[in-house]
Automatic annotation (TrEMBL):
Tree of life domain: Bacteria
Protein name in the entry: Short-subunit dehydrogenase
Coiled-coil segments on the chain, per record: none
InterPro entries: NAD(P)-bd_dom_sf (IPR036291), Sc_DH/Rdtase_CS (IPR020904), SDR_fam (IPR002347)
Organism of origin: Desmospora activa DSM 45169
Matches recorded under PANTHER family: DEHYDROGENASE/REDUCTASE SDR FAMILY MEMBER 7B (PTHR44196), DEHYDROGENASE_REDUCTASE SDR FAMILY MEMBER 7B (PTHR44196:SF1)
Entry-linked Pfam families: adh_short
One of the record's GO cellular component terms: membrane
Similarity comment text for this entry: Belongs to the short-chain dehydrogenases/reductases (SDR) family.
GO molecular function: oxidoreductase activity
Keyword Mitochondrion: no
This protein's record includes keyword Oxidoreductase: yes
UniProt keyword list: Oxidoreductase
Amino acid sequence: MSQRNILITGASSGIGAEIARQLVQKGDFPLLVARDEAKLQQLRQDLGCGAAFTCDVTCTEEVNRLADCIYQRYGGVDVLINNAGYGKFGGSMEVSTTDYVGMIETNYLGAVRMTRALLPQLLQRNGKIINIASIAGLTGIPNLAAYCASKFALIGYSESLQLEFAPRIQVGVLCPGPVQTPFFQGEDPASCFPPLILGRLLDTETVARHAVRLMERPRIKIIPAGMRWAMHLRHFSPQLYRWVLKRMYDSFAQKRPVQLKQEERIP
């Protein structure tokens, strides 16, 4: 297989950085994109391969400049991995409107901006798009309403892209369960998830490995296997699924008093 140019957003740490490491081992050329220039340069140095670009995916102008730069330097992108994103744990009335907007801007519209900017290159090279979503994009989860909304949007967008552009472009979506990363902005995982979920956290190496494999046969993929069974239950017996989920969270996190954000208090 010839070396592929693979652009990874959110590449400075966590899943994105691990995807880059695994791609280099396969002989690919990673184009590392994130906001933290120091971390990007350190990663590129550690990899001994690839190129690093600072870019904020919430800024259309920066994304468009990045796409032009990559085309001029490298001739285009073969695979786009939209991985940039963040989460904010809290009840639907506890998370601020600013954070709702921020998650939509980064997790969903960030992928939209990058896809639109690189689509001509991907079409030219019969490329692939891999969007890193979440199990939270397939089912509502207590205390993750804002995050769920952003990932539901990403999955719907991905399915639409696949229908519009296949077979010239193939689109895959990875939907992992909770991952052992400092993803939820300073939150302790033990304070975010019930024990049943906490004992099944995925590590970044596993998630990255599935993302890399997904490039060979893009589709919607749920990991781990236990989460796939949960989604089957949701599909075939939604009332039972909701009852189980409600019971699990009621015994853990739903009994705390709701704290409305000051700017959103009802008069």
